[in-house]
From TrEMBL:
Gene3D superfamilies assigned: Vaccinia Virus protein VP39
Residue ranges of every copy of the Methyltransferase domain listed in the record: 76-166
UniProt organism field: Orthonyx spaldingii (Chowchilla)
Pfam families per record: Methyltransf_25
Span of the signal peptide: none
InterPro entries the record matches: Methyltransf_25, SAM-dependent_MTases_sf
Molecular function per GO: S-adenosylmethionine-dependent methyltransferase activity
Designated name of the protein: MET27 protein
Higher taxonomy: Eukaryota, Metazoa, Chordata, Craniata, Vertebrata
């Protein structure tokens, strides 16, 4: 909070604003995947220009919540993109990283980082995760939970592959066009909490999440949009009374 990071006086290039807008538009799945395939080569350059902080904030929050030394923990990075989250996790001692993404172009970039032990093509929301139940110590979804992207109906599938006592690290944006999605995501998480499937450890609102691509999306004229990091822990299965 407080002062905006970086020098946000400069205007973002129109082509970059268009690419971001296209990614958040509710386009049909094949078109959206083509868009990400085409974006892969420029993606890291673009998110650097946006001062996109979600991978750093999410990895820092997860590392803080993680009770054990992370080197032996098995972690699934869902919608891993080019591997931005893996870089941040690797710096914090996580070594056993698996990734899935719906875009072959993005996966190719992620593969070139050498940070993942396993990478698989998977379109979350239309097909199950390629993993057995209770397989991962932690699952991250950073940046993909938003309007026109991954539906919040994927939460049970994320929980399925998480070990009891394992962690879910999720992010979403709090900009005006994503507020309905965010409310629905929080309602779905609240329902899972009430059914004791998981418990909330953290919901941290962050003011300077990334640079806004339009005046309408900007938080109170700061030139940035805000976002939130959630950390949840999957509840162990209660033993039936003797």
């Amino acid at each position: 909070r407080g002062v905006a990071p970086g020098g946000s006086g400069m205007v973002l290039p129109a082509a970059l604003r268009d690419r971001v807008a296209a990614a958040h538009r509710g386009s049909a799945l094949p078109e959206r995947l083509r868009l990400y395939d085409g974006w892969a080569a420029r993606y890291e350059q673009d998110v650097a220009a946006l001062e996109y902080r979600a991978p750093h904030l999410a990895a820092a929050s997860l590392a803080f919540a993680f009770p054990a030394p992370p080197a032996g923990a098995r972690l699934l990075d869902v919608a891993c993109g080019t591997g931005l989250v893996a870089r941040e996790l690797h710096q914090r001692g996580f070594r056993c990283l698996h990734g899935v993404d719906g875009s072959a172009g993005m996966l190719e970039r992620a593969r070139s980082t050498g940070l993942y032990q396993e990478l698989r093509l998977c379109v979350l929301g239309t097909e199950p995760l390629p993993a057995p139940a209770e397989h991962y110590d932690a699952v991250t979804v950073v940046g993909a939970l938003g309007e026109g992207q991954v539906p919040n109906t994927v939460l049970p599938e994320l929980l399925r592959v998480t070990k009891p006592g394992g962690f879910l690290c999720l992010t979403t944006r709090s900009n005006p066009s994503n507020l309905r999605y965010k409310a629905e995501l929080e309602a779905a998480l609240g329902q899972l909490e009430r059914s004791r499937a998981l418990q909330k450890l953290l919901a941290q609102e962050v003011e300077y999440w990334e640079r806004a691509t339009s005046e309408e999306e900007s938080t109170q004229g700061t030139g940035y949009i805000s976002g939130v990091v959630y950390i949840y822990q999957k509840c162990p299965v209660p033993h039936p009374e003797e």
